[in-house]
Amino acid sequence: MRKNSVKSTRINGEVQRVLAEVIRGEIKDPRISPLTSVVAVEVAPDLKTCKAWISVLGDEQARKDTHAGLRSAEGYIKNQLARRINLRNTPEITFIMDQSIEYGVNMLKKIDEVISEMPEREDEGAEN
User: Fold this and answer.
1) Whole-number Å distance between alpha carbons of 43 and 95
2) Mean pLDDT estimate for the chain
3) CB 45 within 8 A of CB 38
4) Residue/partner pairs of 12-16 with CB below 8 Å, 24 or more apart
5) For residues 52 and 11, is the Cβ–Cβ distance under 8 A?
């Protein structure tokens, strides 16, 4: 299976969907933040390993707690993945913390601050 083939893209999308459902609705670990999302998934061509990029909106402690909670629930998550997706092998999942969403939120806040501090241009309201 090639890395960018249609089959690999479909498998990645399906694994991402199932992971998001399981993390969002089925894991009862209080360490896992409710603001957790699965950003991307990359399943290896041999279907034995899977990298899942997880984003947590919150502070550093919330990210650490969520990562610990996900690692402790790996067996349950893998079991649910095997039940819902019929693959030759059920991949071992590696969770990677991704801060791109938080970075984007922080950049938007900074842009808003700069815009609010800019003096109003007087010639915008003038008619020609």
Assistant:
1) 12
2) 86
3) no
4) 12/40, 12/41, 12/42, 12/43, 13/41, 14/85, 15/41, 15/43, 15/50, 15/52, 15/81, 15/85, 15/91, 16/40, 16/41, 16/52
5) no
With 70 as the cut, is the pLDDT of residue 27 above it? yes
CA torsion, points 82, 86, 88, 90, in degrees to nearest 10? Answer: -20
Q: Are 103 and 27 in contact (CB under 8 A)?
A: no
- At residue 29, the 3 state secondary structure works out as coil
- Grouping H, G, I as helix, E, B as strand and the rest as coil, residue 105 is helix
- How distant is the alpha carbon of residue 56 from its chain centre? 7
Contact 76, 27 (CB under 8 A): yes
Q: Is the CB of residue 55 less than 8 Å from the CB of residue 100?
A: yes
- Cβ atoms of residues 53 and 40 within 8 Å: yes
Whole-model pTM above 0.85?
no
The Cβ of residue 95 has, within 10 Å, a number of other Cβ atoms equal to 21
Q: Which domains are present in the chain?
A: 6-121 (3.30.300.20)
